[in-house]
Amino acid sequence: MNRLRRNVITTRPARDGHPYWCARDHSCTAYTLPTGEHRSDLLVWATPYGKFIATRVRTRAGKDRLELRAVVRLDPNQRTAHHQAQRLVIGMDLAVRDALVAATRPGRKAAA
Predict the structure, then answer these.
(1) Which residues lie across from 37 on neighbouring strands?
(2) Cβ of 13: how many Cβ atoms within 10 Å?
(3) Which of 41, 45, 67, 105 shows the smallest number of beta carbons within 10 Å?
(4) How far is CA 56 from CA 20, 34, 59, 64, in A?
């Protein structure tokens, strides 16, 4: 089940200079540090094998990025765990590349 944590602050209008998705808490350093950035609440997807954690980030220069983490259980056998880790990194790279390319394909309908 995908339970996304949201609070009232993340849905307020951005009249204070924060993007609407900014958490506006200690994780947002856009107005407190010279290299600060807006950061969203953590978005967490629980899976049978672990979880995915995503955070949207915008630098003071206006560049957006998405930070992704995967927390998964590996096999207790070290050799198997090593192979699992290699395959996970390759698989994540392929999935990200595919998602980024698909988002720029001509004729793609924009999300509502």
Answers:
(1) 59
(2) 7
(3) 105
(4) 11, 19, 10, 7
